[in-house]
Amino acid sequence: MTKSIMPDHPILELLRKRWSPRAFADRPVEPTKLQSLLEAARWAPSSSNEQPWNFLVATKDNRAEFDRMLACLFEKNQSWAKNVPVLMITVAAKNFAHSGKPNRHAFHDIGLAVSDMITQATALDLFVHQMAGFSPDKARETYSIPDTHEAVTAIAVGYLGDPNTLPDDLRERELERSTRKPLNQFVFTRKWGESAEWAG
Can you tell me the distance from the alpha carbon of 111 to that of 96, in angstroms, rounded to the nearest whole number? Predict the structure, then answer.
């Protein structure tokens, strides 16, 4: 199944192909592909080249470790994420290593790293679903995350599956057409809220 994504302006085909499914195939992700995803994240830009990201990773190859990470997700996400081959939790360093001062860009930089990872995944016919629906406190307890760091998001990675395997409510969401706000709702010029004429 492919989503019908219709951008208003030309974008790269990889970006057109990207979406966030909940139905994943019962197929493992090859270790070389997993390495490529994380290598793409590794080379993402970051403030002062701090690279404030860490990735906790669990695969179905080790069911006990996979279940530990799965337990960090909210119940609704567990209902479909239990079928994915790879789970991750992103973790940000709160402070700059070079100065010890708070790094307010760390979450932004993790977003850049994950975005690069997603683009690499799409090129390899893999799909990624990011989740806010997990417990950072549970993740901290489970993985002994130090106070200097904070869990940010959970991530599912795998090959696209059959939406008919999902519960009814999630299947409907899976089949919905993807939409986005038009540019003129978030691209401003001169002052806040004033749309740029060229944004359309």
Answer: 17
- 119 to each of 49, 80, 176, how far by Cα in Å? 21, 23, 22
> Would residue 9 count as lying in a domain?
no
For residue 2, the model assigns a pLDDT of 63
- Which range of residues forms the domain containing residue 113? 24-161
- CA angle 127–132–135, rounded 5-degree value: 120
pTM reported for the whole predicted model: 0.94
Write the pLDDT tens digit of every residue in 13-71.
999 999 999 999 999 999 999 999 999 999 999 999 999 999 999 999 999 999 999 99
Q: Hey, how many other C-beta atoms are within 10 angstroms of the C-beta on 38?
A: 15
pLDDT in tens, 132-175: 999 999 999 999 999 999 999 999 999 999 998 888 888 888 88
Q: Residue 95 is part of a domain; what is its CATH number?
A: 3.40.109.10
Whether residue 186 is contained in a domain is answered as no
Of the candidates 29, 1, 2, the residue with the CA atom closest to the CA atom of residue 16 = 2
If one counts the domains in the chain, the total is 1
In a domain, 101, yes or no: yes
